Structure formats: structure tokens, C-alpha cells
């Protein structure tokens, strides 16, 4: 039986096609650590993953999951904004950057990503990507601020230089409520 189509499945399939053992990856919004652990499984012991979150609860959650799965030697989890990721990696060295915009699953919904820092983080990430590197964005929206961030991110993504990056935006048109929007970026090789 196949898995139902979801943003998570689309994102993980895309990432798995591009990340290899030994790569350097970034989980820009660590949350509960599931994407961080997924990236660790792809890069293996020879690779490295940096994960960022501004919430201590998310950092603790991610570290606990990594320890449980035996990935604590592969990943470094930083209590820092994703907008500061350029301080942790050199330009042109990162194979994959993952974002989940919105709020911490099961956390306080009044604490959420903001368009200003999210766009700054995407801009920093674009510089960090190696040729052939990828970025995945999952835009969760709704509530009071989610629509504004969604609109700002989509507007910004339209301005990304098409000569260097391909940007693909997907939408679930027949899903109720506010289904997440997966976006995929590929830096030309």
C-alpha cells in the first residue's frame, strides 16, 4: 500500500534524491527534530547537519530525538535564528536546507516564524547552497499571522534569480482548510 500524498512525503522524496552520504545540510527550523533526524539518516557518519530553532523547547526536543536515534554525533542543534545560519557554514558548501514555516507542532501558536527573518534566512541559504544544492520550504499558514507570512514568502520567491535557481511551488487545491504549501528550490549546477 502506498503512502498518501502529503507535503512531508513530497519534501522527503525530493530531499532524498539530492542528499548523499558525507554532505552538509541545514534544518533551518528544527521544531521537534524529525527533519533533522531525516537529514542525519541521509548524510551518515561522514556528513554533518546544523539545526536551528529559537525556542528552547524545540532545541531540547530535537536533541532528545537525535540521541534516541543515535545521531547526536552528526548534528549540531543551535538555539539561534535561522536568519543567522551563514555564521555556521561557508558559502557554496551546503547540499540541502529545509524550512518548515509556521509554529512548533504542539507548541505555543503565538510563537511563529516571521516574514522578515524567514526571508533573510532564505536569502542566506541561497548563498550557502553548493551548485546542484536544494532547498525545501513547507509553508504552514493560518491563524493570525500565517497568511501574511505565506504571502510575503511567495512574493519573495517570485524574485529569486531564475538564471541561478529553479523555484517550484506546489499546492493541494482540493484539501480543506489551509493545507501546507511545499516549495522546492534547486541551484543550477
How many separate helices?
A: 5
Gap from first CA to last CA: 36 Å
Radius of gyration equals: 15 Å
How much is the average pLDDT?
93
Model description:
Keywords: Methyltransferase, Transferase. This is Methyltransferase domain-containing protein. InterPro entries: MnmM_MeTrfase, SAM-dependent_MTases_sf. This protein has about 190 residues and is of the alpha/beta class. It contains 5 helices and 7 strands. The protein has helices at about 5-20, 35-45, 55-70, 115-130, 145-155, and strands at about 25, 50-55, 75-80, 95-100, 130-140, 165-170, 180-185. It has a 7-stranded mixed sheet, with helices on both faces.
Could you give the topology of this structure?
Layout: H1 7-18, E1 24-27, H2 34-43, E2 48-53, H3 56-69, E3 75-79, E4 94-101, H4 115-128, E5 129-139, H5 146-157, E6 165-169, E7 181-187
Parallel strand pairs: 1-2, 1-4, 2-3, 4-5
Antiparallel strand pairs: 5-7, 6-7
Core attributes:
seven-stranded mixed sheet, 5 helices
In brief, what are we looking at here?
The chain has 189 residues and is of the alpha/beta class.
